Amino acid sequence: MGVLLTVGLIVLFRERLNRQGRLSRAASDNSYAAYVIHAPVLVVLALLIRDIHLYPLLKFALVTLIAIPLCFAFAALIRRVPGVPARPIGLVRPISPMAASNSTDGTLEDC
């Protein structure tokens, strides 16, 4: 049953849900920057909420609901700053495994 469910979901997503909307495209474009800045954002939010007396799971939910949009908003702002690359430096031009294996002198060739 689990295998059938897994295969069925893969087929469903491949055939019917393979489009990218405006919001998911923006989230995709800003995902790496959001990943890089999420730790300090979480620390600041946790420090701001530490004196509020709530059940810890509610604090977690509150910080999560605030942090996710905040991280992506900061990421979008950071990517608009002049001089900040649109993509991370290491991901601008990936090296294919074929180029690395075809090198005869042990150096990596540009693709």
Oligomer: single chain
Which range best describes the helical content: under 10%, 10-25%, 25-40%, 40-55%, 55-70% or over 70%? 55-70%
Judged by helices, strands and strand pairing, the structural class is mainly alpha
Q: Which stretches are poorly predicted, pLDDT < 50 over at least 5 residues? A: none
Mean residue pLDDT: 82
State the separation between the terminal residues, measured CA to CA: 45 Å
Q: What is the string of helix and strand elements?
A: HHHH
Shape: flat
The proportion of residues in beta strands is: under 5%
Round the Cα radius of gyration to an integer and report it.
Answer: 21 Å
Instruction: Please count the helical segments.
Output: 4
Question: How many β-strand stretches?
Answer: 0
Described by strand count, sense and barrel closure, the largest sheet is:
none
Overview of this structure, please?
The protein is mostly helical and 111 residues long. It has a domain at 23-87. It has four helices and no strands. It is flat and about 50 Å long.
Index terms:
single chain; 111 residues; mainly alpha
Question: What would you say about this model in short?
Answer:
The protein has 111 residues and is mostly helical. Helices cover 65% and strands 0% of the residues.
